[in-house]
Amino acid sequence: MSVLRQILIVGVLAAIGAGGWTVAGPLLSDSADGARPKNGNGSARPAAAVVAAVDFASERVRVEAVGTARAVRSATLFAPTAGEIESINFTADAPVEQGDVLLELDREAEELAVDLARVRLADADRIVKRLTSLSRTGAVAQATLDDALTTLEAARIELKQAEVALSDRLVVAPFSGRIGLTDLDVGDRVAPDTRIASLDDRSALLVRFDVPEALLGRVQVGDSVSVVPWSSGDIRAEGTIYDVGSRVDEENRAFAVRARIPNDADLLRPGMSFRVNLDIHGAEHPKVPEVAIQWGGDGSFVWAVGGGTARRVPVTILQRQGAAVLVDGAIGRGDLVVVEGLHRMRPGAPVDVISDSTAAPKSIPARLQDASS
């Protein structure tokens, strides 16, 4: 190959190299400076980011337990005294009003005793009136009048005793409610310990369940609770805590709680079992969207925006609530955290806020799922 031809080839290659550097040089320079975009004044350009305002919410602990219901008022009825049943004035599951006579015992002897007591009272009253009139003239000693007055008071007491004995021959409803079944019939003889029937006021139910000892002091009267009967998942009822037990059971390390559940529709019954859900609220903590959580070598953190710049705030994840996370960290109510544009954030870097509305998270980051599991 001639020297002239070699010189020509070298010249062509040099020209191609110079042209390539002219084109690629600025591109390589821009790529190298991509992390630090410049504006016309040579300062760093703000990184665009979507932010969300920090809210505060209470930490929640859900208690799930099995509860058993009883009527808000319930009584087992017994006859006050022994006797033979004369009439039964109720049917099973019938509504009764307070004071209704449910059962009557034979009472002929008691009625006669009342009549006799009234006669004696009337006789004692006449004697007192006559002696009082005579005592004004001095014809009767004061001691005689005093004895007559004592006899009168004794007659009044005897009449009251006879009337009480007569009323004991009736079994009346102590409150309004629904009467239960009875195994007795007219003509049966009952004693004071013979069970007649049960009476329930089921306008509301008291559902008793156990709560772990660790939550002692955090369950308060008036807290909301929901129950679902095990026999029917279609029925869901809401109520409130009615009372809290005073001691912890030594065997199961739990304390008893009762919830009052309204039963206006009369769909629930005493004795039913329920699945009980109780949410216990604790201290308030910052609440951020789950997509705002990032992870580094020292744990979880969020990017907070303040004064137009970004700062890295370490946080501890406490609890997930829906699409948000309760955290513990140096952020306050109303602070802004980055939810989109996280890869552009650097400590102290300027930030251009695109929107200050809370962005709905699109998915749960895999690293957050692992952390909360």
Describe the protein's topology.
Layout lengths: L2 H30 L14 E7 L1 E24 L4 E6 L6 E2 L4 E5 L2 H28 L6 H26 L2 E3 L4 E3 L9 E2 L4 E18 L11 E6 L7 E12 L5 E9 L10 E17 L4 E3 L2 E8 L2 E13 L2 E6 L6 E5 L10 E3 L12 H7 L1
Parallel strand pairs: 1-19
Antiparallel strand pairs: 1-18, 2-9, 2-13, 3-5, 3-8, 4-7, 5-6, 7-9, 9-12, 10-11, 10-13, 11-12, 13-17, 14-15, 15-16, 15-18, 16-17
Helix pairs in contact: 2-3
Structure notes:
The protein is an alpha+beta fold. The protein has 3 domains: 47-58 and 284-361, conserved putative lor/sdh protein from methanococcus maripaludis s2 fold; 63-72 and 195-283, Elongation Factor Tu (Ef-tu), domain 3 (Beta Barrel); 83-190, Helix Hairpins (Orthogonal Bundle). Helices cover 24% and strands 41% of the residues. The strands form 2 sheets. The chain has a 6-stranded antiparallel beta barrel with strand order 2-9-12-11-10-13.
Helix percent band: 10-25%
CATH topology of the largest domain: Helix Hairpins
Supply the CATH superfamily name of the largest domain. Helix hairpin bin
Task: Tally the beta strands.
Answer: 19
Radius of gyration: 44 Å
Distance N to C terminus: 75 Å
Write down the secondary-structure element order. Answer: HEEEEEHHEEEEEEEEEEEEEEH
- Name the CATH class of the largest domain: Mainly Alpha
* Mean pLDDT score: 84
Strand order of the largest sheet: 2-9-12-11-10-13
Number of helices: 4
Main pleated sheet: 6 strands, antiparallel, barrel
Rough outline:
elongated
- Domain module tally: 3
Assigned CATH architecture of the largest domain: Orthogonal Bundle
